[in-house]
Amino acid sequence: MGTSLGEMAPSVEGMQRVREHPTLLQTLARLGVGPGDIDTVCHSHIHPHHISGNVVRNTEGSEVPAFPEARHVMQAAEYSYCASSNYRRVQAAFDRFVAPVETSGQLDLVDGEVDLIRGEHGSLTLMPVPGPTPGHMVMRIQSEGHVAYHLGGLLHAEEQVRSPGLSAAGDWCPPLATREREWLLAKVEMEESKIVSGQLAFPGYGRIVRDKNGEQCYVSSVSTTAGDYVLE
């Protein structure tokens, strides 16, 4: 879900502060996964600090798709909005980070809620949740009875759990983002599911609970064992 987080020049200072920062490609390599092994990349929205890992420089110095075998999935509404004017293309760094995967035939536009995978043991579902951008979406991950939501750009800080009306400066429609954030956080709490967000303190995986005052708050669901992160 996205290909980068602050991995761009200049980097996004606030994101650098909350994360240990190997690149996505470095992280995949540590897991024994190469760029050619990836078959699907999903984009919650088109903001440069989420999509700048779409391309890499080849030996000639040209920028080419980083994942040559992958389809890049995004909402058609997101693509249409960002491609609709020169100003928006520049703002989103569209020509640098989206156009190359479109030119290579890897772009896959979807409309509305879409199941990427649905089977006996689990599913991956893309859900439109506009507000941060017109075509913003989150991913619902279900596996062996457990559920998590990758929030994309819907949640930027833990403070937004307690105060969903706080919006990022780059939100397209703050009132809509607030309403969608309130809805999804309530859903996560009711389902007792987990949230994933690359914009929370690393590694950004936890649950929504009530504190002693009855207010929603975020609690990490990660422990460390011998330097390794363990999801609870």
Would you write up a description of this structure?
With 232 residues, this protein is α+β, with helices and mostly antiparallel strands. It is 26% helix and 28% strand. Strands 6-7-8-9-10-11-12 form a seven-stranded mixed beta sheet. Strands 1-4-5 form a three-stranded parallel beta sheet. A hairpin with a 5-residue loop joins strand 11 and strand 12. The longest helix is centred in the C-terminal third of the chain and has 18 residues, at 174-191.
List the keywords.
single chain, seven-stranded mixed beta sheet, alpha+beta, globular, three-stranded parallel beta sheet, 14 strands, 232 residues, 9 helices
Distance between the termini: 21 Å
Q: Radius of gyration from the CA trace?
A: 18 Å
Number of strands: 14
Helical stretch tally:
9
Q: Tell me the series of helices and strands, N- to C-terminal.
A: HHEHEEEHHHHEEEEEHHEEEEE
- Poorly predicted runs: none
Strand content: 25-35%
Report strand order across the widest sheet.
6-7-8-9-10-11-12
Biggest β-sheet strands, sense, barrel:
7 strands, mixed
Given helix and strand content, the structural type is: alpha+beta
- Describe the global form: globular
Q: State mean pLDDT (0 to 100 scale).
A: 88
- Helix content estimate: 25-40%
